[in-house]
């Protein structure tokens, strides 16, 4: 059951907002935000019980449903490109941002681009083979 539904059910059962927050381990601001959204939309007990969790969330917070979706980076391409000499993750991210802007879609920020890539590498147990470069020492 979603947190929103649990919050509203506990509120209908007479719990205080502070008690709901501590019981569900959410902030009091979250509880207040859900309660305010429910009262703004005039949700009845029957309507609450009949709604699915996603439907309830979209009813309470329609502005969140309208947020633009971000373009997911192509992780196999990123990994393949990183094997090339001189290619960095920052360079590939800049290329990704340019492609997103050309398509008119919002891109991920750099840190939000790197973290899913790192997760992809760990999940797929990928490694990068680095060719050792011989070092020439000069003796005086």
Automatic annotation (TrEMBL):
SUPFAM superfamilies: Homeodomain-like. Residues 6-36 form the Transposase IS30-like HTH domain. It comes from the Bacteria. It holds the Pfam family HTH_38. This is Helix-turn-helix domain-containing protein. It comes from Clostridium scindens (strain JCM 10418 / VPI 12708). The lineage of its organism: Bacteria, Bacillati, Bacillota, Clostridia, Lachnospirales.
């Amino acid at each position: 059951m979603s947190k929103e539904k649990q919050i509203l059910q506990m509120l209908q059962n007479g719990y205080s907002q502070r008690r709901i927050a501590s019981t569900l381990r959410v902030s009091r601001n979250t509880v207040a935000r859900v309660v305010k959204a429910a009262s703004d939309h005039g949700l009845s007990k029957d309507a609450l019980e009949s709604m699915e969790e996603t439907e309830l969330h979209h009813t309470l917070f329609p502005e969140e449903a309208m947020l633009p979706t971000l373009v997911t980076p192509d992780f196999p391409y990123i990994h393949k490109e990183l094997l090339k000499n001189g290619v960095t993750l920052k360079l590939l991210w800049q290329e990704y941002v340019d492609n997103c802007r050309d398509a008119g879609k919002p891109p991920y920020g750099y840190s939000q681009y790197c973290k899913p890539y790192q997760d992809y590498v760990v999940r797929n147990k990928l490694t990068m083979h680095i060719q050792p470069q011989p070092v020439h020492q000069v003796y005086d």
